[in-house]
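RECORD TYPE: inverse folding
INPUT: structure tokens
STRUCTURE:
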């Protein structure tokens, strides 16, 4: 079946400026359906929350899934699923219904999908019961459940024991969740999905992506697992990779601060198989707001699997930045129709005449409407000597107008540090500095009690 699911997840929805995230990459693969006949049950949510675009997108995705399997099993779009494989449809709301048995007729399967109407509550446990009952325990066919849902369980018992029972029969459970309004129970979906859950679970906030998720799952079913996998993940410039874990399968290496490579010899060649890789990224403070974590993911394997990863975003809280302005450059003007110009820049020597040191500092939890006085004291550590003062800066940080206290990052606080005369022979010698910061609010509402108030 090739790569049946590719996933990318992050462990937090928001972080502070300069904070860290754990990123998890996951892949799942299945053997070739043409030589490994498979019984597939589509478990489709038709509860009331599915009305409108979600149900229309679900029908489109399910029908595309059926068409792709039709062609994959015998090489022909002939309206019959071949190779001994079959598909069944189970839909659920207040209760679940076996809309078809495990059959090969594409027309009958599509009729069942197209007849779905959205109404009622969400009963996941009955969906697993009815779907599992379609499987013949005596059949040698592989067993696959594909559950789609957009909501939490609102009626019926906990579905976890029934999902576990399906997996105990040898069924592989894929879960697709639509989370447009935050209505799903992600922990429950992970418990129902096969392990590793991140390789068998896909969540999208966009109903329009449902058809693509179903199509991607079906597209690779005709491919016999995956071999010679190479995945290169490039994170966005706002982040750098600080640690790469050991993958559950294959090897991973850090290429540079923004790229890693994950290589797997084979996956899902003889049985359903998942693989995961976790790594840590740190925000570098250069951007804020809602940020995509990865810039791109490049994937290849010997079988030509088509793989699409989600693009998780994280909210970064550091959108207030104060920067000390840079010195103005000298302007040189060339008159029109001039071919050359001579500009006297004075005498230059190939040597260091000093250093420019730029410092950044983050002020934590600055309240709105209050200016801050910031002092920076710079000292230089000498060999066996007391620290020598090298400069002091006092800055006024403007008040911000956010609704709550926020971090304020002050950047590029510049100090010009001349070289001593004794350094003339060592213009590039190492120098050690230390900086101290003092900050307090300039604005406050304190008023000294008047004498008459005290009386």
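DESIGNED SEQUENCE:
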């Amino acid at each position: 079946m090739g790569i049946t699911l590719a996933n990318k997840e992050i462990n937090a929805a928001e972080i502070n400026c300069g904070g860290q995230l754990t990123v998890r990459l996951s892949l799942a693969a299945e053997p070739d359906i043409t030589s490994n006949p498979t019984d597939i049950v589509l478990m489709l949510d038709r509860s009331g929350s599915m009305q409108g675009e979600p149900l229309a997108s679900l029908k489109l995705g399910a029908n595309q899934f059926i068409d792709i399997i039709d062609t994959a099993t015998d090489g022909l779009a002939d309206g019959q699923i071949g190779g001994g494989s079959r598909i069944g449809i189970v839909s659920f709301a207040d209760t679940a219904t076996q809309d078809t048995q495990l059959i090969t007729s594409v027309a009958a399967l599509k009729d069942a999908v197209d007849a779905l109407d959205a109404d009622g509550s969400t009963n996941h446990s009955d969906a697993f019961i009815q779907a599992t009952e379609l499987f013949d325990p005596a059949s040698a066919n592989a067993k696959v459940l594909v559950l789609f849902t957009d909501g939490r369980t609102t009626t019926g018992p906990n579905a976890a024991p029934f999902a576990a029972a399906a997996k105990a029969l040898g069924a592989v459970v894929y879960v697709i969740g639509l989370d447009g309004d935050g209505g799903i129970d992600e922990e429950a979906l992970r418990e129902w999905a096969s392990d590793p859950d991140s390789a068998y679970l896909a969540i999208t906030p966009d109903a329009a992506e449902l058809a693509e998720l179903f199509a991607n799952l079906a597209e690779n079913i005709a491919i016999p697992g995956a071999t010679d996998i190479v995945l290169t993940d490039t994170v966005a410039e706002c982040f750098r990779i600080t640690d790469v874990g050991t993958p559950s399968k294959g090897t991973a290496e850090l290429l540079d601060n923004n790229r890693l490579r994950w290589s797997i010899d084979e996956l899902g060649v003889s049985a359903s198989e998942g693989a995961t890789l976790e790594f840590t990224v740190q925000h570098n403070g250069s951007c804020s707001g809602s940020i995509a974590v990865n810039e791109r993911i490049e994937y290849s394997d010997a079988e030509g699997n088509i793989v699409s990863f989600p693009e998780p975003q994280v909210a970064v809280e550091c959108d207030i930045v104060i920067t000390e302005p840079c010195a103005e450059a000298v302007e040189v003007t060339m008159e029109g129709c001039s071919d050359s110009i001579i500009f006297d820049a004075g005498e230059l020597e190939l040597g260091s005449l000093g250093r420019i040191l730029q410092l950044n500092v983050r002020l934590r939890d600055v309240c709105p409407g209050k200016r801050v006085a910031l002092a920076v004291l710079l000292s230089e550590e000498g060999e066996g000597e007391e620290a020598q003062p090298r400069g002091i800066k006092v800055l006024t940080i403007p008040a911000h107008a956010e609704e709550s206290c926020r971090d304020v990052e002050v950047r590029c606080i510049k100090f010009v540090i001349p070289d001593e005369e004794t350094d003339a022979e060592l213009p590039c010698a190492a120098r050690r500095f230390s900086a101290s910061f003092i900050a307090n609010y300039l604005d406050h509402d304190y008023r000294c009690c008047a004498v008459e108030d005290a009386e």
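NOTES: The longest helix spans residues 53-74.
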